[in-house]
Amino acid sequence: MISVDKLYEVLKTAQEPKGYFFNKDKDVVSDLLDGLIRNSARYGYMSCPCRLASGDYERDRDIICPCVYRAADVKEFGSCYCGLYVSEDWNEGRILNTYIPERRPLQH
After folding, report:
1. pLDDT tens digits, 45-64
2. Phi and psi at residue 106, in whole multiples of 5°?
3. How far apart are CA 104 and CA 54, in angstroms?
4. Is the pTM above the cut of 0.85?
5. Nearest CA to 84 among 32, 39, 11, 8?
6. How confident is the model at residue 108 (pLDDT cuts 50, 70, 90)?
7. Under DSSP, is residue 17 helix (H, G, I), strand (E, B) or coil?
8. Burial (0-12, 13-18, 19+ Cβ within 10 Å), 60
């Protein structure tokens, strides 16, 4: 199983060039990465730890990290729903850190 530190490095390397940064709160990031690792072991894919996964890959495709809602959340609010990925402005305090509403349709 991959460690939190290794997953951090892999995702950071892949996502920062796209403009998505980890939350500056390392404890939040560590907890969320641990949740991704646990969900990967449980379901076979890294579903968002902030949402209830069904265990059905096709049904959960929209919440596999990075979820399909991340881009819109970061663009509009500076942070994704769970707070793992944020914009540089969010981390630097140039935009208000506010509650991110759930975009996932209720039928999921």
Report:
1. 999 999 999 999 999 999 99
2. -60, -30
3. 14
4. yes
5. 32
6. low
7. helix
8. buried
106: CB partners within 8 A, 6+ apart: none
Task: Specify burial of residue 11 (Cβ count, 10 A radius: 0-12, 13-18, 19+).
Answer: buried
* Of 78, 83, 80, the residue nearest 104 (C-alpha): 80
By three-state DSSP, how is residue 21 classified?
A: strand
Contacts of 70-78 with CB under 8 Å at 24 or more apart are 70/20, 72/103, 73/100, 73/103, 74/19, 74/20
Q: Which residues contact 103 (CB under 8 A, 6 or more apart)?
A: 69, 72, 73, 81
Tokens of 61: 């495709």
| DSSP letter, residue 102 | P
What would the two tokens of residue 34 be? 């641990």
| C-beta neighbour count of 38 within 10 angstroms | 14
